[in-house]
Design brief:
The structure is a single chain. By secondary structure, the protein is mainly alpha-helical. It has a single domain, classed as ABC transporter involved in vitamin B12 uptake, BtuC. Helices cover 76% and strands 1% of the residues. The chain has a two-stranded antiparallel sheet. A hairpin with a 2-residue loop joins strand 1 and strand 2. Helix 4 crosses helix 13. The longest helix is centred in the middle third of the chain and has 26 residues. It is globular, with a radius of gyration of 28 Å. The protein starts with a helix and ends with a helix.
Length: 374
């Protein structure tokens, strides 16, 4: 019996490394470093495709927003149509802090995060008891309530339809935040956010979130409090949205009422679906693609850019559900398959030993033939 138990424990210990999520390894650091390099050099390479410096800043900000949204949708499968509530309220909190307290960014950042967390906690407690379309509709309803409140109840603070104007130029350590300085602040926050999201994906917490997406009922039967995990993912996603709203005000010292409108939530959904849900990199690609269409392609084809973007979105949903990331994986595997096929069809080169052996055999046959003739 003791031998059987020891064998069982050894089997479990040998199998556990494959069952447990791995920590960050060398490959993960390479991915994060490559991501950081691409983001930090964006103001240079975006010029080669017809973009401009300010567009790079907007892509980074919306990319952070979409990245946080992907933690909720891509990991747990909960589709929120109300993420504009956290983006917009954090933007208003940032604007009010800059206008009435101090133009320093650090207090504004803290206030915006706290505001987004409070609003997110309230909405999460009330809406995460439901799932599927009911959760989506509840999140949309709460966001629209905040939008209506910004236009009516809190109009004296938010500026109503005109938005919150008259904001001072933000400052960070005595430096004015404008131009390329805003980009690098946003880029650093995006890189940190991507590293944190990548760590979550590799951690047991991320594995549990993906298990909730696959089969929440089975986890409930196993005694797992899935509501706590969903709430944690929702709050993390809320923090990302709040930081993105903060950065949007730093980029453009003005708070538009559209920031809490349902269309803002719809845009981040489209970005995530086009890029690839659950991939972390995909929503950022989707944000860049959509903003490039809105700011660069629009100058070429006019208002028809919405029609083209809608056509692309329909094609992705129908023919490429995994988004641009899935397309990239498909192309990569096809190219790898072609390379392996070509290598398989090419005959191997003869080694020196095989060549010398074959020459010796021919010489021996020739010598024996001469001896027989004699």
């Amino acid at each position: 019996m003791t031998d059987d138990m020891s064998v069982l424990q050894a089997a479990r210990s040998s199998a556990s490394p494959t069952l447990r999520p791995r920590g960050l390894g060398g490959r993960d650091y390479v991915v994060i470093s490559a991501f950081a390099l691409v983001i930090l050099t964006m103001p240079m390479w975006i010029l080669t495709i017809g973009g401009y410096e300010a567009l790079a800043t907007k892509i980074v900000i919306w990319g952070l927003f979409a990245l946080g949204f992907d933690i909720m949708l891509g990991f747990t499968g909960y589709l929120s149509f109300g993420h504009a509530a956290f983006f917009g309220t954090a933007a208003y909190a940032t604007g009010l802090s800059l206008k009435h307290l101090t133009p320093n960014l650090l207090p504004a950042l803290g206030i915006s995060i706290v505001t987004a967390v409070l609003i997110g906690g309230l909405i999460g407690v009330l809406s995460l008891r439901r799932s599927g379309i009911y959760f989506s509709i509840l999140s949309l309803a709460f966001a629209e309530m905040l939008h209506a409140a910004a236009l009516s109840i809190f109009q004296q603070y938010t500026g109503g339809d005109n938005g919150l104007t008259g904001l001072p130029l933000p400052m960070l350590f005595g430096l004015q935040m404008q131009g390329i300085a805003v980009f690098y602040v946003a880029a650093v926050l995006l890189i940190i956010g991507f590293a944190v999201a990548w760590k979550i994906k590799r951690a047991p917490f991320g594995l549990m979130l993906r298990a909730i997406k696959e089969n929440p009922l089975r986890l409930e039967y196993a005694g797992i409090n899935i509501w706590a995990y969903k709430m944690a993912a929702f709050m993390i996603s809320t923090v990302y949205a709040g930081i993105a709203g903060f950065l949007m005000v730093v980029y453009q010292p003005y708070v538009a009422t559209q920031y809490v409108h349902w269309s803002t939530s719809g845009e981040v959904v489209i970005m995530s679906v086009i890029g690839g849900v659950g991939t972390l990199v995909g929503p950022i690609l989707g944000a860049g693609f959509m903003l490039y269409f809105e700011n660069v392609v629009q100058a070429i084809i006019g208002e028809q850019w919405r029609l083209v973007l809608g056509f692309v979105f329909v094609c992705v949903v129908i023919f490429l559900p995994g988004g641009f990331v899935a397309l990239g994986h498909t192309i990569w595997h096809r190219l790898g398959h072609l390379v392996r096929s070509r290598r398989r069809n090419v005959s191997d080169m003869e080694t020196d030993s095989e060549t010398s052996g074959r020459s010796s055999a021919r010489a021996g046959a020739y010598t024996s033939g001469e001896h027989d003739a004699c």
